[in-house]
Design a protein that fits this description.
By secondary structure, the protein is of the alpha/beta class. It has 10 helices and 5 strands.
Length: 254
């Protein structure tokens, strides 16, 4: 009897491979800027990009002619595979207007808000001049996430005094405006916050801010306040004892 050799069963069809996770880092030389999500930014948001750079038309013209020469940094969202800008908001907006593609370096996937703010703060701090208001906004954004002051200082690489200054400013809208208007630094405004209800003292401090004499002016207005408080206490004590107190100079001459 002739034996029959059985062929081995065909291999079972393998299941479709799971989609691969996007690479953590990649370089994309030509990206349509209209596909990039600007997202949040630590800089104060202006009504339009044209108000952010003095010669916006010249900036756009330069990009139209030469392209975007500095790579835009972004992170990829795994939820929709979209790219969100970390560093290069204005270059992206200018490239959109100029009709040019942009080079993009993807540095991470799905970063946290804390890392996003920290990255943008460092990029702006060390590559572009940030205003005191920009710095205060970045620090406040991190604090609003529930991050402890010491951790916020470490992530943003700033002195803990600046973080505490922003905390103090959060209680005084009037004093915060001195920072946004460029009249005081963060630490100066934080010190001035204790005189938020004293227009004369605040004016003296504003006049001294940024000129090397702020600490001296602060000491003087504090001394004046202490002297006035002591005077008020003495007057109140004498009146409580039944004395009539004349608070204005009286002339005894006819």
């Amino acid at each position: 009897m002739t034996s029959t050799t059985m062929a081995p069963p065909a291999a079972a069809t393998t299941a479709a491979e799971a989609p691969k996770a996007p690479p953590t880092r990649e370089f994309l030389p030509e990206v349509d800027p209209n596909t990039l999500d600007i997202g949040g930014n630590v800089r104060e948001v202006k009504e339009s990009a044209a108000n952010t750079i003095d010669d916006w038309a010249g900036f756009v013209a330069d990009i139209a002619e030469n392209g975007v020469e500095h790579v835009i940094t972004a992170f990829r969202r795994s939820s929709d595979n979209g790219l969100q800008v970390l560093d290069g908001q204005l270059r992206t907006l200018a490239a959109r207007e100029a009709g040019r593609t942009v080079p993009v370096r993807v540095v991470a996937v799905d970063i946290s808000e804390l890392d996003r703010i920290s990255h943008q703060y460092r990029a702006n701090k060390f590559h572009h001049e940030m205003t005191a208001a920009d710095e205060a906004k970045a620090i406040q954004d991190v604090l609003d996430l529930g991050v402890a002051p010491t951790k916020a200082a470490k992530h943003l690489r700033v002195d803990i005094k600046e973080v505490k200054a922003v905390q103090a400013l959060s209680k005084s809208a009037a004093t915060r405006s001195l920072v946004s208007e460029g009249q005081m630094s963060l630490t100066e405004a934080a010190a001035a916050a204790e005189f938020a209800d004293d227009d004369a003292a605040t004016a003296r401090l504003v006049a001294a801010a940024g000129r090397g004499g702020f600490d001296h002016a602060l000491a003087l207005v504090r001394a004046d306040r202490d002297a006035e408080n002591a005077r008020a206490d003495v007057i109140a004590e004498h009146r409580a004892q039944g004395f009539e107190v004349l608070e204005e100079n009286v002339s005894y001459t006819e």
